[in-house]
Specification:
Largest sheet: 7 strands, mixed
Radius of gyration: 22 Å
CATH superfamily of the largest domain: Type I PLP-dependent aspartate aminotransferase-like (Major domain)
CATH class of the largest domain: Alpha Beta
Order of helices and strands: HHHEEEHHHEHEHEHEHEEEHHHEEHEEEH
Strand order of the largest sheet: 4-10-9-8-7-5-6
Number of domains: 2
CATH topology of the largest domain: Aspartate Aminotransferase, domain 2
Oligomer: single chain
Number of strands: 15
Length: about 425
């Protein structure tokens, strides 16, 4: 039988030829256009290496998936140990032990009103689940979301995204889905008073849009309760310590959402997994009898490898006080970025909440750089640094929660070298 690792090593460097022929030629072309056409062969912590031996600083951690760094040794060993044990998985007609342990562990980090956990394969599947739960639990048709939101690319998740540009090609979408302006409590209340809204789904910090006003989430949750609407928090990007709290919504106090959706970091970077945690009120209306015990299910949702990865992730977070260190680390990085802002007019703003950071630029007429895409390209081409474009004026950083001083120093050095030549 052919050795898979041998096949991978023999094909190293042919990534884009394979992608262009068999997967997505346009994506390959786009990556080439921004200098991201690298062929990575190794990863550890905050770094990647390509097939030429070049080293890259990863400041987006797989869009937050690798919160504990790439190839975290504790999570890897936990998976190796489980695979070596020959323990069962996906019997289907069973009460899975790893799933039960992970659900218990997740709940230890959540408000006590969130009682039941349903496991998914991704954040988007979690959003689909939350939409179904909300309509079933309230017997109402409408789902509200926020302008500027991003909840995934599956049909239901796409229907509640706040950017029309992502939706136009796929219409008609799920009916009865409406967006309201983010941070606008009056607009939210105006929709809720119609008494037909099943749920308001919101990201505590938008991956594609603005930062919430202080108190907005808590007030929005109260408005929802006043009108019999469920308040659903999409913590796929922000949850599991990314902002210095287990849930980002905690920064607004005792919000007590009805449903929370988690994913990304819960995987440890190894096995896709998501979780939808709901109140007893919601659970009792969806899984309302023995006959409805499997009314909503997923074949791979409780795969034991995913559950072990989740358990290892949360164990590591707790054992090494990772979440407690996020605020300190983020303030060091944020302060260095503010110092650059003070020295260079091309940086107009810096925002951060934990290790979600946004750097906003201005591009004077005649500048060699015309948009944030040029910043992304220059950081990669000249300094081997991976960042994410948020919009034409800003870039977003989502570094590993375990990022250390040398990475922070190198990133700020690289950014200064780029922005010093903006004019």
């Amino acid at each position: 039988m052919d050795n898979i690792l041998t096949q991978l090593l023999e094909s190293s460097g042919h990534n884009h030829q394979l992608y262009e022929k068999h997967i997505n030629p346009h994506l390959s072309s786009y990556l080439k256009s921004i200098n991201y056409d690298k062929c990575y062969v190794k990863a550890k912590g905050s770094y990647l290496w390509d097939h030429h031996g070049q080293k890259y600083l990863d400041m987006i951690s797989g869009y937050g998936v690798f919160a504990l760094g790439r190839n975290n040794s504790y999570i890897k060993q936990s998976l190796i140990d489980f695979i070596s044990s020959d323990m069962s998985s996906l019997v289907q007609l069973e009460a899975s032990l790893p799933a039960g342990l992970l659900a218990k562990k997740i709940k230890q980090h959540l408000p006590p009103n969130l009682e039941y956990v349903y496991f998914t394969n991704s954040g988007a599947e979690g959003i689909e689940t939350a939409i179904k739960y909300a309509r079933c639990a309230t017997s109402r048709p409408r789902i509200l979301s926020a302008s500027g939101s991003y909840h995934g690319s599956t049909m239901g998740a796409l229907s509640i995204n706040g950017w029309d540009s992502t939706k136009e090609l796929f219409k008609p979408l799920l009916p009865k889905c409406t967006s309201v302006s983010f941070n606008d409590l009056s607009a939210l209340e105006n929709e809720l008073t119609r008494e037909d809204v099943a749920a308001y789904i919101v990201e505590p910090i938008q991956g594609e849009g603005p930062i919430p006003d202080a108190g907005y989430l808590k007030k929005a949750a109260q408005l929802c309760r006043n009108h019999g609407t469920l308040f659903i928090v999409d913590e796929v990007l922000t949850g599991i310590g990314r902002t210095g709290r287990f849930l980002a919504v905690e920064h607004d106090g005792d919000v007590n959402p009805d449903i929370v959706v988690l994913s990304k970091a819960l995987s440890g970077g190894y096995v896709p997994v998501g979780a939808v945690i709901s109140t007893k009120f919601v659970y009792d209306r969806v899984f309302s009898s023995i006959e409805r015990a499997e009314i909503h299910s997923s074949t791979f949702g409780q795969g034991s490898l995913a559950m072990v990865a989740g358990l290892a992730t949360l164990n590591y977070l707790d054992r090494f006080n990772i979440i407690d260190n996020v605020t300190t680390t983020s303030n060091i990085l944020g302060s260095k970025l503010l110092a650059l802002k003070d020295r260079y007019k091309s940086i107009t703003n810096v925002y951060w909440k934990g290790l979600i950071l946004e750097i906003v630029f201005s591009f004077p007429k005649g500048s060699r750089y015309r948009s944030s895409t040029d910043i992304v390209k220059a950081l990669m081409q000249n300094h081997n640094v991976i960042v994410r474009k948020k919009n034409n004026q800003s870039i977003m950083l989502l570094p590993a929660l375990v990022i250390e001083s040398p990475e922070i120093e190198y990133f700020t050095y690289a950014l200064e070298q780029v922005i010093a030549t903006i004019n």
